[in-house]
Structure to design on (90 residues):
């Protein structure tokens, strides 16, 4: 359960980092200043932080899936012997 929470938390933080960085790095609206009269510049490492968190989110999701699927017992593929069909037991 902890892996699922960490996966979702890192995904949300990475998504917000990448979305905010893309919005602040937009060069189309040069006359429109964000947040009043200041022009914000994305700091170095902002996008790499989002990328690292997104890769961590994927890794946590894979670990969670493997841990969840390995806890289940494998299906029994042995043929079943039925009493209703006597010719099936030949």
């Amino acid at each position: 359960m902890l892996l699922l929470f960490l996966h979702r938390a890192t995904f949300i933080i990475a998504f917000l980092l990448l979305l905010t960085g893309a919005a602040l790095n937009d060069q189309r609206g040069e006359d429109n200043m964000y947040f009043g009269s200041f022009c914000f510049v994305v700091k170095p490492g902002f996008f790499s932080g989002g990328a690292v968190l997104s890769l961590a989110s994927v890794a946590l999701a894979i670990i969670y899936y493997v841990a969840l699927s390995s806890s289940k017992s494998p299906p029994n593929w042995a043929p079943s012997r039925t009493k209703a069909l006597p010719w099936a037991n030949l």
Remarks:
- DSSP finds two helices and no strands in the chain.
- The chain has a mean pLDDT of 80.
- The helical segments are 2-24, 46-70.
